[in-house]
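agent> step 3/5: call structure_predict on target 'Secreted serine protease' (Streptomyces coelicolor).
agent> reason: downstream docking stage needs a structural representation; sequence fetched in step 2, passing through unchanged.
tool.input:
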Amino acid sequence: MRRSRLRHLGLAGLLVLGSLTAVGTLPASAADAPAHSPSSSEQPASAGLLDAMQRDFGLTRAEAEDRLAAEREATGIEPAARRAAGKAFGGSWFDAEAGRLTVAVTSDATPSALRAVRATGAQVRTVEHSAQQLDAAKARVDRLDAPAGVSSWRADRATNKVVVDVVAGERADNDVQSFLKQARATAPVTVRTVPSAPQTFAAGTVGGDPYYTGNVRCSIGFSVHGGFVTAGHCGRAGAGVSGWDRSYIGTFQGSSFPDNDYAWVSVGSGWWTVPVVLGWGTVSDQLVRGSNVAPVGASICRSGSTTHWHCGTVLAHNETVNYSDGSVVHQLTKTSVCAEGGDSGGSFISGDQAQGVTSGGWGNCSSGGETWFQPVNEILNRYGLTLHTA
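tool.output (status=ok):
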């Protein structure tokens, strides 16, 4: 990137959407993801982020601040609550109404385990299946061949079942019925109807946008030492990448799609990186301070080169998605955030914690929809990369 353009950091003409990253900052690897644990005296978020949450969640400023603080506490206590539950652990999620982490445990949990979970500050719910059993059931469904009418499936902690999403109007399809019959034979299944099939969010060439590979435009996710991470469907290893001004950025060094949807791009030729997610003028640019995983139910926001900044809620972890072109991707996180073509690869962030890169979804930012992302810690671990943090 030309240094004379740095003053335009907040415009669509930058290193695109996502988080960019600066050399010389303290790195946080995926292995030590708890890179930053804000104290209770810290402001929970920037004014811009609080404004976006008020807009997208219908909250007052005080309610947005309280929710972020509660989510940060829930994220912090989840590992201890999981350890306390032991083999009886059935999953966890953030209960927005109660403002607390909920931990599911099986009925054979010992009294001491229950006391230990509650001692962390989490509330407890009894379920039939442990998280390990539910994940094993979902893995059995993963081995089935899904027809186009089945859009995704996941081990849902709150319902304690494998939830299968079927596209509206396709449930009576013979192939869908066959899939559901096989799924029910191998797992505790419940079926949900969704309006349309998910698709990835790459787009054809449009002027003045973040980065290009060939005739595809996508969005930067998060900066790492030597480059940035993004979506795998945006380009293959060895493909060249150009920026908003069509000058050369670097090259895809690794890429995986389908099965996964992640990639990383090396940066050179005068471009550099900083630990920032663009707010696009909707909110102020957001600093990245770590990659602690937000629980189900927590608020989350996305930055992308087409629709810029939008917020929603984490709906599920480890969901398998069957995209409309037949590509199946595993271990994605589902959100209620909208996205559109060109947002692929962009940043998902919760507070100041990096979460993942946009993969795909259904709907749009006019009528709403759902979007999935590839968790960032998996990408860092896969390629041995180090996240840049402020």
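agent> step 4/5: record observation. The first helix runs from residue 47 to 57.
agent> proceeding.
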